[in-house]
Amino acid sequence: MKREEFSSSLGFVLAAAGSAVGIGNLVAFPVMASKNGGAAFLIMYAFFVFFICLPVMLAEMSLGRHTRQNPLGAYTEIGKNAAWRAVGWMSVITPFMIGVFYLVITVWIFGYLAKSVMGQLEFLAAPDSFGVFINSNELFIYMAVVIGLTFLILQGGVKRGIEQAARVLMPLLFLMLIALVIYVMTLENAELGVKFFLIPDFDKMTGKVLNGALAQAFFSLSLAMGILITYGSYIQKGNNIVQAGKMVAGLSLLVAACSGLLILPAVFSFNPDVQLSELSESSISMIFTFLPKIFLALQTNIGYLGASFIASFFFLLVFFAALTSLVSIIEVPVASLMDGKGVSRRTALYSLGGAMIVLAIICALSFGRVDLFTSLTSYGLGADGLPLAKSFFDLVYDIFYETILPLNGLLLCLFVIYRWKKHNFDAEISQGNSTFAGSLLQKYINFSLGTFIPVILAVIFVNTVATVFFGKNLLF
Ligand code: TRP
């Protein structure tokens, strides 16, 4: 059977941008940037996106398009030995497990959306609601809806499912983001937030900040998750990979920058005296505990109904962003099963989906409902000098999202340059791009992927293991 393809380069760009744009761009980035040097952070982040992340992105896309395979198939076909095949396995198990915890987060977002629409903003803004909500039975209703929607999109296949969803959701997402930015700019003291987001402070650029920024840029672009290999395998041979990659990176950056103009002004109009140190680095606590309070406070200006409307609008925006990321990550194991076992999309989706739902339910029960899953293990180092208690959710997050991703990225660079070989990689990019061969870009990509990018990823990997599992950050 002929492999499905995106209908055009734009179809790929929207789908890949849909994958890349998520809560990282919308919430984590603005907070990180304002705390760590404002515009200085933004400039450095943009530099990382184009000079370090883009080459990796192009490597993944080319590998996918060349082999017309999922990551496991691609590593097996070109690697030709058991070691590379093992790396291939790691590249499909990782997105499967990331899919599990991301499903849970998407369900929470959908739940907050539903509750804002149903007029329960007051509940969402109360101090303990998040804990109550994530342990409620209602959660499973929202889970059923999110799973249903995700399956519906994936069942439609590449063109009529993934691409079509991105063609509808991404333009809506951009419009909603712009509308919200315009709205918050009209609020009192909004300009204070813009200042904090944009005034550069170069003194804050420490090794730790640089490491955090690079890791954020890298994962936010969906790198090392097998997604761009898989989506790359659906790109037409005549499309220009370099141009498409630049557009995906640019769109993701644009959304991150615009989100800064949304979140920070909202925070400062809520409380002009807010200390940046009070803002949590965690997007989870920003979205689910801090922002609902801000939305509720809007009622003094626009009434409860108006405030609920703004909150619903915001959660819908975040939900669209999360849904397209969730779809992209689940497509990786689905494609692997279809390619590897020759089963239909439906069979692949139902068998993997079943396993994923069981694990997602275990995650959802690991916030206090079931002791075994809640206090599964402990490691690392807490403020009190003792190891931190870790739930099943924490464990999945720490192992797959924090630790294995940089390792996967590092192995991918080595694989493309030293196993697949530069000339094959260049030949693939050159299809659809006649000026690539011999260009400065070609030299830069080949050099960086074979030298300093894997070294940087190795440093991030080692430092993450030291920080997460041993409580020692090696960078200052
Ligand atoms: N888009 C997410 C973010 O910025 C990160 C991410 C990239 C992701 N690809 C993903 C998350 C796939 C889940 C699944 O927050």
Automatic annotation (TrEMBL):
<dbReference type="Pfam" id="PF00209">
    <property type="entry name" value="SNF"/>
</dbReference>
<keyword id="KW-0812">Transmembrane</keyword>
<dbReference type="InterPro" id="IPR047218">
    <property type="entry name" value="YocR/YhdH-like"/>
</dbReference>
<feature type="transmembrane region" description="Helical">
    <location>
        <begin position="399"/>
        <end position="418"/>
    </location>
</feature>
<feature type="transmembrane region" description="Helical">
    <location>
        <begin position="39"/>
        <end position="59"/>
    </location>
</feature>
<dbReference type="InterPro" id="IPR000175">
    <property type="entry name" value="Na/ntran_symport"/>
</dbReference>
<keyword id="KW-0813">Transport</keyword>
<keyword id="KW-1133">Transmembrane helix</keyword>
<feature type="transmembrane region" description="Helical">
    <location>
        <begin position="247"/>
        <end position="268"/>
    </location>
</feature>
<feature type="transmembrane region" description="Helical">
    <location>
        <begin position="130"/>
        <end position="154"/>
    </location>
</feature>
<keyword id="KW-0472">Membrane</keyword>
<feature type="transmembrane region" description="Helical">
    <location>
        <begin position="449"/>
        <end position="470"/>
    </location>
</feature>
<feature type="transmembrane region" description="Helical">
    <location>
        <begin position="12"/>
        <end position="33"/>
    </location>
</feature>
<feature type="transmembrane region" description="Helical">
    <location>
        <begin position="87"/>
        <end position="110"/>
    </location>
</feature>
<dbReference type="InterPro" id="IPR037272">
    <property type="entry name" value="SNS_sf"/>
</dbReference>
<feature type="transmembrane region" description="Helical">
    <location>
        <begin position="213"/>
        <end position="235"/>
    </location>
</feature>
<feature type="transmembrane region" description="Helical">
    <location>
        <begin position="348"/>
        <end position="368"/>
    </location>
</feature>
<feature type="transmembrane region" description="Helical">
    <location>
        <begin position="166"/>
        <end position="186"/>
    </location>
</feature>
<dbReference type="GO" id="GO:0016020">
    <property type="term" value="C:membrane"/>
</dbReference>
<feature type="transmembrane region" description="Helical">
    <location>
        <begin position="302"/>
        <end position="327"/>
    </location>
</feature>
<protein>
    <submittedName>
        <fullName>Sodium-dependent transporter</fullName>
    </submittedName>
</protein>
